[in-house]
Write a structure and sequence with these properties.
This protein is of the alpha+beta class and 77 residues long. It is 22% helix and 42% strand. It has one helix and five strands, in the order E-E-E-E-E-H. It has one helix spanning 60-76, and strands spanning 8-14, 17-24, 36-37, 40-47, 50-56. Strand 4 and strand 5 (50-56) form a beta hairpin. The longest helix has 17 residues, at 60-76. The radius of gyration is 12 Å and the shape is globular.
Length: 77
């Protein structure tokens, strides 16, 4: 849940790291998130009316690489 709204969350593994990817549908806005909290990097983007939030202890460049690959896979569908 984000706030009081249920959201879909997928969990990916990259080597020894987990990546939590939440999708907030319908263009619902959420509070602006910092890019890092307590050692966890956060990356947010919007695509086709859905706001995505990826959270992981991966280094920021590696999390960005994951997000690019996710967006590219989504575009292929």
């Amino acid at each position: 849940m984000i706030g009081r709204a249920p959201v879909a969350t997928l969990v990916y593994r990259h080597r020894q790291h987990l990546i939590s990817l939440s999708a907030v549908p319908g263009g619902q806005t959420i509070a602006a998130t910092p890019k890092e909290i307590a050692g966890y990097n956060i990356l947010s983007w919007s695509e086709n009316g859905t706001v995505y939030n990826a959270v992981s202890d991966l280094a920021a460049p590696d999390l960005e690489t994951f997000a690019k690959a996710f967006r590219a896979a989504s575009a292929e569908r």
